[in-house]
Amino acid sequence: MASKTLAVLAFALFAFNLQATLGEITCEHLDQDTCAYAVASTGKRCVLEKHVKRSGEEEYTCRTSEIEADKIRNWIETDQCVKACGIDRNSFGISSDLLIESRFTGMLCSPQCYDGCPNVVDLFFNLAAGEGVFLPKLCEARQGNVRRGMSEIEDSGLIAPGPIGGGVRFKGLPPANAPF
After folding, report:
1. Main-chain dihedrals φ then ψ at residue 179, nearest 5 degrees
2. Where does the record locate the signal sequence feature (predicted)?
3. H-helix or E-strand spanning residue 47
4. What residues are paired with 51 via a beta bridge?
């Protein structure tokens, strides 16, 4: 147990030192291999975009999004976190759809990712919250019976119905499109 804690602390110190040597991060100055999951010095998340030229050639650019990271600034995600969390540096936008994929949530909720990669966890915590799911509860459910855990999450008060239903619905209240 102590060696695991020591390894996480060593990794965090390494990541901090790496970030300190890079100086101020501007998304537009990052390349394709460092853009996705980076956070600029301003606290805004970086996003990788693909543009197709008239010739059919693909060109990748990094830009600053309007999404702010929570308490994280000047951050380029490490290769260790990319691997541990099961994310891809060539992501074009990030979808909450990943949260319903068992393989992905298994990696996201693993101690290596959840305890050692605060930037990735912050991002998916906010994505999950937007879908009415509390990420710690989802990860807790993965440790036990996954079906029962998902049922408990659905019964926790927030339900995200399918496309026909409209939007997030709170139990005990009529759907958002229903008249009061």
Report:
1. -70, 150
2. 1-23
3. strand 44-52
4. 59
How many CB atoms lie under 10 A from the CB of residue 124? 26
DSSP 3-state of 23: coil
> Nearest to residue 60, comparing CAs of 36, 24, 26, 37?
36
- Judged against a pLDDT cut of 90, whether residue 160 lies above it is answered with no
How does DSSP classify residue 59?
A: E
**Phi–psi pair at 169, nearest 5 degrees:** -125, 135
Q: What is the rounded CA–CA span in Å between residue 146 and residue 142?
A: 5
Contact (CB, 8 A) for 128 and 135: yes
Please write down the long-range contacts of 104-110, taking CB distance under 8 Å and 24 or more positions apart.
105/138, 105/139, 105/142, 106/142, 108/139, 109/138, 109/139, 109/142, 109/143, 110/84, 110/85
Spatial separation of the C-alpha atoms in residues 98 and 120, rounded to whole Å = 13
The number of beta carbons lying within 10 Å of the beta carbon of residue 71 is 9
How far, in Å, CA of 100 to CA of 166, rounded? Answer: 19
Q: How far, in Å, CA of 4 to CA of 43, rounded? A: 30
> 91 to each of 46, 95, 124, how far by Cα in Å?
11, 10, 14
**What number is the average pLDDT over the span 122-132?**
94
